[in-house]
Structures are given as structure tokens and as C-alpha cells.
Amino acid sequence: MDLVPALEEPLKQPLKSVLGPATAKVMAEHLGLHTVGDLLHHYPRRYEERGQLTHLADLPMDEHVTVVAQVADARLHSFASAKAPRGKGQRLEVTITDGSGRLQLVFFGNGVHKPHKELLPGTRAMFAGKVSVFNRRLQLAHPAYELLRGDGEEAVETWAGALIPLYPATAKLESWKIGKAVQTVLPSAQEALDPLPPALREGRGLLPLPEALLKIHRPHTKADVADARARLKWDEAFVLQIALARRRYADSQLSAVPRTPKPDGLLSAFDDRLPFTLTEGQRKVSREIFDDLATEHPMHRLLQGEVGSGKTMVALRAMLAVVDAGGQAVMLAPTEVLAQQHHRSVTEMMGELASWGLWREAPPQKGGGGRREGGMLGGAEHATKVVLLTGSMGAAARRRALLDLATGEAGIVIGTHALIEDKVQFHDLGLVVVDEQHRFGVEQRDALRGKGKQPPHLLVMTATPIPRTVAMTVFGDLETSVLDQLPAGRSPIASHVVPAADKPHFLARAWERVREEVEGGHQAYVVCPRIGDDIDEAADPKKSGKKSPEDEAEKRPPLAVLDVADQLGGGPLKGLVVEVLHGRMHPDDKDAVMRRFTAGETDVLVATTVIEVGVNVPNATAMVIMDADRFGVSQLHQLRGRVGRGSAPGLCLLVTEMPEASPARQRLNAVASTLDGFELSRIDLEQRREGDVLGQAQSGARSSLRVLAVIEDEEVIAEARQEAAAVVAADPELTGLPGLRTALDALVDEEREQYLEKG
After folding, report:
1. What is the average pLDDT score of the chain?
2. Is 167:45 a contact under the CB 8 Å cutoff?
3. SS3 state at 459
């Protein structure tokens, strides 16, 4: 939040730099810090107390760390090498300790002289470097260091107070150098313009911003840090919620066509033919949606719920209501497999009410308004066309589909990103349903909404259960509905971890269980992390990028669909019908594979995560996830939701070679221990950095969280949302709050107003 001109002063300038030009350059290139304000908002990651030493036992491998410790021992060794063949090479080994753990530092060549003089036993210092392993011992090679003598004018000035701030740093710029740079610009904090309205700040007993910045960077006590963090958390939560509240306010000023279903129309006909009763949750959420659709302002609603909770049914009823009212409804899916699956399931649920085959067989008949199929061959009185539109369709089929969209013959349209293209035009677009919101950016959903003559209503669905505060932070411009009740007849899913390396006979038993399920008349999925064809990047170590420590430990690429399918078909599952499905197959081939699996012609489907969402085959009761440690917690929960969708119980086996004590195994144990997607989502988010929750900040935007933690700070986020709504309702343009306006401009750049773009 670059707040005033003094804080907007560049750290590096052609004639006069605030800092040394080299330091300013590194800050810009490696830390994204360009102005005085940027640097003041680069907060310490943690603090060390004078006289208290750092824990060395839990240092992360291959990461740049800063530790405060005491020298226990220092020894200079001579050795022979290619550069010093006569034994004149020198190596300084320094052991540092925190009283409970030890860490070795090593210096070579000419670099040994200065540390040999300074790093004497008993000396306390800060050390920074990259953690590596040599001879099974952790070490820092050639670390930078700063002595902590606690006396001398410079030390007292730089490290005033009892706490030593340790900053997020890089190999190019150590924590203490960042600290010194902060001290240089800290006087500018007095000129920081406060974004919080005075009444809010005073009413909640929060520090003024200049005082908070001073205490976060130069605290004397832990209470100083707590007070500063409490204030700065409010800044982040409040400015973020102001941005979302303004978006909600702007949307509320738009006009939309009310869409009210007819008492005896398509929706009633659909409900009458349902072979089951809707859950109370589905009825409640449908009422919320229908109330929104009946208003003269566009609906903006997030529908989230457990895997298998019936979101597609709720969305379909909303689409039918809009078609009833003479409009068109479109569902946007992230992949062709999912679009085809939605098209299949929607037409199956609608039965004779969906005259979906006609656009393929005969020229479309002109007409307006979404449900002109009554009385046509294959259609019931209230039938409407359900059209599929994807990027890989043939030219003729695509032309017919586009014509059906433009004339209004197609009441319901299901498709992929192809729906967003300029050439796609609708007769009267009334509702946009976006499936799997986290796969689409805000701009993409807005591009589709822009195809209506007036803004259409918007329903966003996500199958990933999101904790309340995350939903408020990431989807704060949407009202939220939650489906947390499974439909009647859904079966429980038993989940077990299969430790293939520790107990290979467990894996053999897993394939026996798959055979038993098939012999019992059911089907199974086997999921692998990659495809395994010649152009699969994961198979090429040069292309696969940086590997995680666990990947390095395994020394092998993730298991692949094509390889596993061959091994199973010729081994443990010999004699069963095994097919493969992955994203690089031709769309027609993918569709054919899914049709055969849905029809029960295939016993085992070996697939990538293309089956993660939306795929609905009630007869599939077992799933084996290979290299399950390569998937995220929420993704595993999604995958698991593909089984147990019928009357027979489901089984999910998580196969891994990770050792029992590893974090990966702990994640898998968590997935196996609960079917509560909301709880698993919390675990998943707690293991990720906060910046990932909001998505990447665009150029010039500063949306990543620095002190606010969405899981821990639920109350702050909830209260900030209420305060923000009140402020925006009273002053939408924030004319009376210049500090807030400036902070908002810093958070949300003008070019990319929709800054919460999700990957």
C-alpha cells in the first residue's frame, strides 16, 4: 500500500538513490520492492531475542535461511586439490549451536581469512545461506554473517531494542542488510497516510499507521509486535474487502432481466419426472437462487459444496427456470471431458425434455426465446435444445451450434472456453453457470457475462469445499450458498493408505480388491500423475523444472497412465478390459472412452486428473490413486468423490512410496481419516503460503497477504467485510477517505481492476 508521494519515492533514481544503487537493484529484481513504501511494507518474518538462540533442528533443505546462533568450534584444515596441489588449500569449518542442535559452516580458499579471525568460539552472529547436506550433516557453505556484539554505536543504532527482526531475504541480499535499509527509510513512516477511517481505528483501539510501521520494524517488546501486527492485519483485510465491496456495489447498480419460471412450464415438467426427492439443502439453495433470478439486478452467487452433494442438479434447475422465462442459459466447463460429461448428464436427467440430438441431424428451425422445441420429433411439449460447443468440434457441427445459439433455438448451452470467443452470439443470454471457478479468471467469466443484451445472472460452482473466510476473501464479490448434505442413496467411501515401498504386499492386495469389485459387477478407476507419452514433460528431467525434495528422494519420475495401463493389463489385472483416458487424446476418442466406461463396457479406466470433477459413473466403486503424494489434499478429495456415487459402498486406495514419518504421508493419512471436505480444505490451506490463496498479484498490484492469515484471522476478515460494506454504502467513491482511496489504488491497479484472478 504505497500511500503518499513521500512513500512513493523510488528506491533507485537516476541522480539520487534512497539506498545504494546495487542494493536498490537487487530489491527491485529479487524482492519486488521499488519504492520507500514497498520497503516499509516488507515486514519481518519473525524476531530473535537477544540472548536467545535459534532452533537449528528444523531447517528446511535447499532454502535460503537466516539463523542466530553461537560459535561452538572453529577449525582450519589444509588439503590438496587441483588448484592447490601441494596441500596449500584451506578449509575453515565452523560449528554453530543453539544449545540443542548444531550446524556446520564451511569456508574455502581466500574466503577463510576474515571468518577465521572473527568467528571465535563464544561469538554470537546472524548467519545466512542455503541449507545443504554434506556427509549426512546439514551445512551452510560460505554463509554471509553479521556479528552481534551488542555494543558499538552502529550495532545499537541498527539493532535498537531487545528484538532482532529477520526479514524475508534472498541469496543476493541478507536479512540484516534489508534491516539496515529499512532503518534508512523508517523516518518516512511518519508521513504515511492512514487508510482506515478514524472512527473505525479509534473504535477498535488500533495504532495509527506510522506507529504500527515503527513498531513492526523496531520493536522493543513482544507487545509492540503484537500491536503492530493487529493494526496491519486490519489494513490488509479492510482494503481487500473495500475492493470487493465496491465490486459488489457496482454490480448491484446494473439492471438485469428478472427470470421467473412459469408454474406449469419446463421446470415443473422436469421436477415431475425426477425419480428421487431433492435434499433439503438442494431445495434451500434453489430457493435462494430463484429469489435472486427474480430480481432486477444480476445475481452473483457462489454455489459450493461437498463432492457429490448435487450441485449440477441445482444448477440445471436454475437453467431450466431461465429457459422457462424465455431466456438462454450457458454452463462453462474447464475441460472438454467435463463439458461432454455435463452435456451427457444434463440430457440424461432431462430425458424427453432435451431435444439435444436434433441439431446434429437436421437444420435448425428459426425462432426466438430458448424453448421452441415443443412437439418436434423426440421432444416433449416443453422440450428445449441442449447444445454442446467445444473448440474441437467439426466446422459443420460448430456452425449449426452457433446458429442455434444466435437464433435462440438452444435454450441450454454447455461448453468450454470456446464459448468466450467473439464470434459466439446469444439470442437472449439470461444465466451463466461457471463450473470449477478456480480454473477460470475473473476476466473470463466477465467476458461471457458480456454476451448478454443486459448483464445475465451469474452462478459460480466449485466442488472444492472452501472455508468460510477463504470464500469471503477470494470470492468476496459473490454471495455464497453451501450444499453440505449428500443426496439419499449415496454410499460411504472407505479410504486407506497403501505404503507400496514399506509393504509391497499391500499393493498386490489393492489389485486383488479391484478384481473383486469388477467380479462383483462394478468398475474401477486407476489415477496417475502424468500421461507418459513422448512429449510428456514430466518424463524429461531437463524440462520438468525444479523438483521437490521428496521427488529428489524418490529418484524417479511420477507414474504414468500409459505405463501403468500396460503393466496392469499384462499383470495384476490381466483379462479385464482396461482403457486409458488423458488430456492429450483427441476429443472424440476421449468422449468414446467415457461413453464405454459409463455404459459398463470397460472394467478399469486408467486416467489422469481429467476425471477429477464432474465425471459421474455410479457403477464405479473403486479408485486406486498411484503416487498419491504427488496430489494436493483437496485434489485427492475431489478424485475420491468419483466413487461411491451409487448404492454400493466406495473404496479409495492411496498408493505411495513415501516413508511413514514424511509430511506427505501425514497429508495422505489426513485424507484417509475424514470425508469432510471443509476440514481437508483447511488442512490444505494451512500447508500453503498465504499468497497462493489469493492467486498471483498482477503487475503493479499488491494483493498477496503479508500479515493476514485467512485461516487464523477469521474474525478480522468477517468484521472487515461488515465495516467495508458500510463504508462503501455511505461513500461508494471514497471521496471523504483519501488515504483509503490511495491504498486501494495501490492494491488494485487500474488496468486489472479484477485483481483476484484465480489460476
Report:
1. 80
2. yes
3. strand
Q: Which three cell numbers stand for residue 461?
A: 460452482
DSSP SS3 for 715: helix
Tell me: pLDDT of 331 over 90: yes
- Grid cell in block for residue 263: 408454474
On whether the CB atoms of residues 436 and 334 are closer than 8 A, the answer is yes
Sheet strand arrangement including 604-607: 493-499, 650-656, 620-625, 523-527, 604-607, 578-581
Widest CA span of the chain, in angstroms?
99
Please, are residues 500 and 507 in contact by the beta-carbon 8 Å criterion? yes
State how far the Cα of 756 lies from the Cα of 759, in Å rounded to an integer.
Answer: 10
For the ranges 145-159, 643-657, 692-706, which has the lowest average pLDDT?
Answer: 692-706
Predicted local confidence at residue 749, as pLDDT: 53
**What pLDDT shows up at residue 296?**
93
Q: Which of 689, 692, 694, 698 is nearest to 748 (CA)?
A: 698
| pLDDT score recorded for residue 371 | 41
pLDDT tens digits, residue range 259-297? Answer: 998 888 899 999 998 888 888 999 999 999 999 999 999
Bridge partners, residue 173, by sequence = 170
Distance from first CA to last CA of the chain, Å, rounded?
A: 23
Q: How far apart are CA 274 and CA 373, in angstroms?
A: 21
DSSP 366: P
Label residue 196 by pLDDT band (50, 70, 90).
Answer: very high
3-state secondary structure 551-574: HHHHCCCCCEHHHHHHHHHHCCCC
Work out the burial of residue 10: count CB atoms within 10 Å of its CB; fewer than 13 is exposed, 13-18 middle, 19 or more buried: middle
540 to each of 422, 531, 534, 585, how far by Cα in Å?
A: 37, 12, 9, 20
The three cell numbers of residue 17 are 538513490
Unique residue bearing C-alpha cell 539463523: 67
Contact 216, 44 (CB under 8 A): yes
Burial of 203 from C-beta contacts in 10 A (0-12 / 13-18 / 19+): exposed
Three-class HEC string of 631-655: CCHHHHHHHHCCCCCCCCCEEEEEE
Strand, helix or coil at 615?
A: coil
Q: Which cell goes with 580?
A: 486409458
DSSP 105-149: EEEEGGGGHHHHHH--TT-EEEEEEEEEEETTEEEEES-EEEE--
- The model's confidence at residue 574, banded by pLDDT at 50, 70 and 90, is very high
Distance of CA 244 to the CA centre of its chain: 18
Residues 372/408, Cβ–Cβ less than 8 Å: yes
Percent of the chain with pLDDT over 70: 79
Q: Give strand pairing partners of 74.
A: 94
Residue 501: its pLDDT value, please?
87
Question: How many angstroms separate the Cα of 384 from the Cα of each of 289, 325, 407?
Answer: 21, 12, 13
Quick one: which H or E segment has residue 209?
helix 209-217
pLDDT for position 444: 67
* Helix spans in 43-159 (H): 113-118, 153-158
Cell 454452463 belongs to 331
Report how far Cα 230 is from the mean position of its chain's Cα atoms: 26
* Cα angle, residue 480 at apex, residues 475 and 485 outer, rounded to 5°: 125
Give CA–CA dist 241/223, Å, rounded.
27
Q: How far apart are CA 471 and CA 558, in angstroms?
A: 32
How confident is the model at residue 703, as a pLDDT?
A: 40
Q: What is the CA radius of gyration of the chain?
A: 30
Question: For the residues 723-747, what does the mean pLDDT come to?
Answer: 89
Bigger pLDDT: 28 vs 537? 28
Nearest one of 61, 66, 60, 57 to 101, comparing CA atoms: 57
Q: Are 97 and 56 in contact (CB under 8 A)?
A: yes
Helix, strand, coil share (%) of the chain residues, nearest 5: 40, 20, 40
**Alpha-carbon gap, residue 123 to 103, rounded angstroms:** 15
What CA–CA distance (Å, rounded) separates 479 from 477? 7
Q: Is 384 helix (H, G, I), strand (E, B) or coil?
A: strand
